[in-house]
Amino acid sequence: MKIGIDLDGVVFDSEKEYRVYSELYDVIDLKKNSKINNQELKFQKRFRWTEEEIQGFIEKYHKQIVVKSNYMPGAKEVLKLLKAEGHLLVLITARGGINKDMIKITEERFKNEGMEIFDKFYWATENKDEVCVKEHIDIMIDDSYDKCESIAKSKIKTIYLKDAPSYDLEENDYIKVLYNWGEIYRYIKELEK
């Protein structure tokens, strides 16, 4: 199977880090309470911040979050297992769009941690549905409600990895809502039958 995999909120627990530091930034640095929607995945949409305030957050916290984020529980083990079983793993991520340096930092991290398991990389990618179609992805794993909906409309099976406060998404033939890497592995094995 050819499996598309998002990075932030799927492989790395960076979304929770973003949530923590965006709250701290809003309260401590901006001395505000400007949260408008806690279900939004992206901090840019969760708060009523100006472009200058968004840029301030990125400059202060972005690299720190990317460098220190832990792997999602089970992600390393399941990804290595899927690779060993012969699946093709394609990384399809928006990481690198805000700061291109994050690509090199992530590649180095993968190398240093024995995670050089991906067959192909798509960095700084916003239109994941287009990449999934082009790459003939059998199943895509993402934590973005919008991305999962868009990819599923292209008739590609999609796992919506729901971990943080976010929108609910109704399951159908192309969307499966799961909550951890153990469930992801079980679902992929069921699809293989």
Question: Can you put this structure into words, describing what you see?
Answer:
With 193 residues, this protein is an alpha/beta fold. The chain has two domains: 2-13 and 70-192, Rossmann fold; 14-68, no CATH class. Helices cover 46% and strands 13% of the residues. The chain has a six-stranded parallel beta sheet with strand order 3-2-1-4-5-6, sandwiched between helices. Strand 4, helix 7 and strand 5 (157-161) form a beta-alpha-beta unit. Helix 1 packs across helix 3 (51-68) and helix 6 (128-135) packs across helix 7 (145-153). The mean pLDDT is 93.
Describe the main β-sheet briefly.
6 strands, parallel
Q: CATH homologous superfamily of the largest domain, by name? A: HAD superfamily/HAD-like
Structural Rg: 17 Å
The coarse overall form would be globular
Give me the secondary-structure category. alpha/beta
Number of helices: 8
Number of domains: 2
Q: How widely separated are the two ends?
A: 12 Å
What would the CATH topology of the largest domain be? Rossmann fold
Give the strand line-up of the largest sheet.
Answer: 3-2-1-4-5-6
Number of strands: 6
Indicate the low-confidence ranges by residue numbers: none
Helix content: 40-55%
Order of helices and strands: EHHHHEHEHEHEEH
Mean pLDDT: 93
Gross CATH architecture of the largest domain = 3-Layer(aba) Sandwich
Strand content: 5-15%
CATH class of the largest domain: Alpha Beta
